[in-house]
Write a structure and sequence with these properties.
The chain is mostly beta strands and 456 residues long. It contains 1 helix and 34 strands.
Length: 456
């Protein structure tokens, strides 16, 4: 993240007070780096007392000139005051003060200033004074901050100061003109696009005669780059049967940081609670619940630099009681024969066990059914029995219901629910009444369909 200028504020004071108060930069937020600079003139070797919480970066004073300039910084907290006040401990009532403050985002929060250039000197009397500052060492993505101040001994014509051409002006002005002269200055910022020496930055000041001058030039370091983290991979989603052993797999975790060996942390975030054999292993396992359910697990991997990944999740879909059914191989119906009695289909579900698993004997997703074709006209006096066999794959109990259906959905007859015991094949019978036989309109479009329902 590059350093960016958020906002700033400044204050001028020409005598009459030993303190100077400047407003907090607009929009200052927690984590911003606040940079304050101050110039003072007059008094007996003035020195700057910074507001509470600020750490001085540097301060220069010239003995005998009664001139000092310096800078300080602090990391903005969650509740900053609306104003900040500095004072001149050795000043007098004639002290000139020029104070500026700026808030920066994206700056390094513990060591934001790798270097700076501070200077004071005697200005002399040219009409245009050049004030070269620097060089300093900066970092690509950082910010250059500079401030220049001049004391003018004349009590007449106002003066002006201009930041270097590569910098953006953030403030300028002057104190009021008094009998002893006045002070003026300017300050600005510049985004850095390269790492290394910045070279000099030269401001100009227009006014003759000049007294003393001072400047501050500092590079603000960008925030430290966040360490790369590993990329956790909890493996693909899985569909499993009830009571199956399930293996989780974090082996596809990618090296985004310091690398393996990783520390693993598996956590179940939803679904029926299960127990992992080792939640800190790369490939832990558990036993799936007996009932249909959906389980979700989260994986966080931490590398050798103690940098943790973002969490990745895997979903385990558990199918409960698995019921299958198929037509018997020797279906006999008085006057009828089977058209496809040897075919096998998956059983439909009543919803209590959600989706039944497809067994090797039930490879499709259609209901269990057997097609029937009439060879001889059935009449109401015939006894017609349709037989299907079905079983449960697990050892639980279930019932089977057989229906004779014409066309897409016309139910001709429905049997009573018949118990299926154990895991052996059970014959399920449907005896048609005379009225049910007479209700058939298309004997070539009939099928028998069975539904196996797991006991609650």
């Amino acid at each position: 993240m590059a350093v960016a200028y958020r906002a700033g504020a400044q204050f001028f004071n020409n005598g009459g007070a030993l303190t100077a108060t400047v407003d907090k930069p607009a929009g200052t937020a927690s984590g911003d780096v606040l940079v304050m600079w101050a110039y003072q003139h007059d008094g007996t070797n003035p020195n700057i007392t910074w507001p509470a919480g600020f750490t001085e970066i540097s301060e220069l004073a010239a003995t005998g000139t009664n001139f000092t300039i310096g800078a300080a910084w602090k990391l903005a907290g969650g509740s900053e005051p609306s104003t900040y006040t500095i004072s001149n401990g050795n000043g007098d009532s004639g002290t000139d003060q020029y104070v500026g403050i700026a808030a920066f985002t994206g700056a390094h929060t513990t060591a934001p200033f790798p270097g700076g250039s501070f200077s004071i000197g005697s200005a002399g009397s040219p009409d245009v004074l050049t004030l070269p500052a620097g060089p300093v060492t900066g970092t690509n993505g950082g910010m250059l901050f500079g401030a220049w101040a001049v004391k003018c001994d004349s009590a007449t014509t106002p003066a002006s100061a201009t930041v270097p051409g590569s910098m953006t002006s953030r403030g300028q002005g002057q104190t009021s003109v008094g009998a002893g002269g006045f002070s003026f200055g300017t300050w600005g910022t510049e985004a850095l696009s390269a790492t290394g020496s910045t070279g000099t930055r030269t401001a100009t000041a227009t006014r003759n005669p000049h007294g003393f001058y001072g400047y501050v030039l500092m590079a603000i370091e960008p925030a430290a780059a966040a360490p790369n983290a590993p990329i956790a991979n909890a493996g693909p989603d899985q569909n499993v049967l009830a009571n199956a052993t399930v293996n989780l797999d974090g082996s596809a975790t990618a090296n985004g940081g310091a690398g393996a060996p990783y520390t693993w942390a598996w956590t179940q975030t939803s679904g029926a609670a299960v127990t992992l054999n080792d939640a800190t292993a790369e490939n832990p396992s558990f036993t799936a619940p007996a009932a249909t359910s959906t389980l979700v697990f989260s994986l966080v991997a931490t590398d050798t630099a103690a940098v943790a990944s973002a969490a990745d999740t895997v979903t385990i879909n558990v199918s409960g009681a698995s019921d299958t059914a198929k037509p018997i191989s020797d279906i006999t119906v008085t006057g009828w024969t089977t058209s496809n009695g040897e075919d096998v289909w998956e059983v439909t579900s009543d919803g209590s066990d959600t989706t039944y698993a497809i067994s090797p004997d039930t490879p499709t997703s259609s209901p269990v059914r057997v097609g029937l074709n009439e060879l001889n006209d059935a009449i109401s006096t015939d006894t017609v029995t349709v037989s299907i066999r079905a079983r449960k794959v697990d050892a639980g109990t279930a019932t089977a219901t057989l229906q004779l259906i014409e066309g897409a959905s016309t139910v001709i007859a429905t049997s009573s629910a018949q118990a299926l015991t154990g895991t052996t094949w059970n014959q399920v019978n449907l005896v048609l009444s005379g009225a049910e036989i007479d209700s058939v309109t298309n004997w070539a479009n009939l099928r028998a369909e069975v539904t196996v329902t797991a006991a609650a």
